[in-house]
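Note to self: keep these together.
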Amino acid sequence: MRIHLVSLIVLTTALLTGCEVRTDRWLERQAEVDPPELWQVEVIGAEARPVQICVDTLLREGFGSPLPEVGGQPCVLIGEPVEHEGGRIGRCASAGRPLLFSVKKEGAPEDFSVTLNVQTLDRRASEVTQTRRYRRLGLCPPGWTIGDNTDQEGRRRNNVWPPAWGG
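Structure:
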């Protein structure tokens, strides 16, 4: 039994090492199937400058269905959101606070806005609304990979998504 366990560990290590060596080839194949696109993200009405991010289909689809966060803590869904034309509404909890959120998406597939409205459902009632505009700029620049982005000064960052729905 012990020999089989050691063999399994050696085999697993060899396979993982082999996979790590081929990471670049995997990224190349993914880019062939789902070419990474460069998108600009702008918070409407804020003094912040737009940022750019290199995304695949999965990340791009996430633009239209954000969840709020409170103090950097993600919002955990309470039940399934109710989908309606152009958006959804639901409840979640973040940092121990129950929240009601609604998301509305408007525009064309390559240039659209998403409005996220969040209301607290506890005694400390408050409400926040933010609209972001997403605009496809084209394919990602050479050397960029999915997740690469710019900060508000236009400097390239590597694989760091800007904070979700921060001001």
